[in-house]
Design a protein that fits this description.
13 helices, alpha+beta, 9-stranded mixed beta sheet, single chain, Thrombin, subunit H, 578 residues, 6-stranded antiparallel beta sheet
Amino acid sequence: MDCVYQCPGLAIFGYNLKKDWLFLPIEYEVNEGEEVFLVDNNGNILGEGVIVKILRKSNKTNIARVQAMTISGDNLVAVRGFILKLDYPDPIEFKKAGEVASETYVCHCDDVKLNEILDVIGDRKFISVDEIKHTTRLGMGACRGKRCIPRLKQTIRSHGISVVGEPTPRGPLSNQIAMGDLYPKEVHENIHVSADGSKPLKEKVTALVAGGGIGGSALFFYLAEAGKAPVLLNYGRGASWRNIAGGRPNFSVPELSDIAVHNLEIFKELQKIKNIDFHPIHYVTFAHDEPMFKALEASMAWSDARMIEPKDFRIEISPHINPKLDTYIAALITKNCWQATPGKVIDLIRRIGIEKGGRILEDCMLANVRKEGSKYFILVQDHEKKYIEFETEIFINALGPEGDKFAKQLNIETGIYPVKHQAFITRRLPMLGREKIPLPMIIDRRRYKGFTAVYGQQLAETGQIIGCASPAVEPPETGSNLKVNSKDFIEIASEVFVNWIPELSSVGFQAVWAGYYVEPRMVIDPELGLFIGLRGQGYMLGQYLAKMYVDKLTGKEVPAYFGRLSMKGDGMPEKAFK
């Protein structure tokens, strides 16, 4: 039986047919003298036996010599093992299972349930992938939608619902330029909507908002609250759905701080209605030189903030802050800041607007705008590629990066332009702030390696760090392709964040993306129907700006500074804390 003894596995069996002995390898504990059942590969009992001897081997494959008691001769070769009589299991009794209540999970990365998705969709018959993504987090996990989005499309098809669009922006094959863009003239563009000459459907509405970001959605809400039964046109997902979820009252312009404080109160009221993942946080702005220190110090006059020294960084900001960090001379900690999930915020204010009489037209592209007297005529291509011409006396252009294009159709020169800003999000992490709370929003406003600010915070809901960087030279980033993320951005984000917290050097990026800020100034003008140029500050200012806009439109009193945001005003420029 040397071959059985030497084999380092369980592949060889030995038999002595004359003495009715079996030599069987084992890797579990048994004792000599114990009675066993001799079994085949399926555990069926072929006979009985007794363990006579156990040879223990250093390679952990022991050999048991078993004396067969009720089986002999050639029948022994069918034996493949043994089971102690005391351990032999009772027969399995199969019973018909009853109904088992269970949830259907569509996204396994973030545990998104089918019921949550259907709740977001409501009674609609189609929805975009990006809206699902930004309201439920489906597609935002490690697989980036590769598995769950096809599963979603297949699953909700049985509910009569279709999914439109792609989860990430797709670059066009070419940039088509109209001659009128190169040589503007008074003759308005004539658009043919069909080959057979048929006319578009016509509809009169009280108010129409073009653009479904945070600004346009808030306008929709307040117009509905004012009884204007507004229509909101939405096509695609802009920067509002891609922002890094933070808000602050910390501005060098006191009026902007006042707007942000009122905006914070709106967020608090929304959280009372439905969970938007609202959490109060602090903003930490580092002072890298004396001019920045003085600007931060001046802002303390109109914000609830305090200055701390470098020796207190690990106590006041995070115990993980680099103890050798010598880049900054101080830091301003600002209270009354907040974070909330952008998709949930936009979805909620839209829902409230619908409840108050508004209507949303999703996946509808604005094609043309013209004005005759006091009336606007807005040509729209709907989800089914049919054209509708809306007539209204209240038209609001809240189109973000495309706002200037349609302002020009009304002979309004705004001078605004889109500037690509890039962002990232990490894998989930333990809470890194003081006392194990989320890491606050941390901001470095140095002009460094092609950027003027690097900033980010930790999301309370997931523990992920989400961050951004502002380009120092805007023209090269104007209108840049959002699908292309730069090596420079990844490098500056990595350098600054790892210098802050060295432990982050081993943390991977889960996703990197981009969106547009609209520069160089805000244009909030009810007389011209403009709500554009929010400069990346729409999430922290947009809802209260929309409230003031509708108040002004409906004859209510607004703060005196609101006039500065019109085309005739200076736009209330923020420079130090942009």
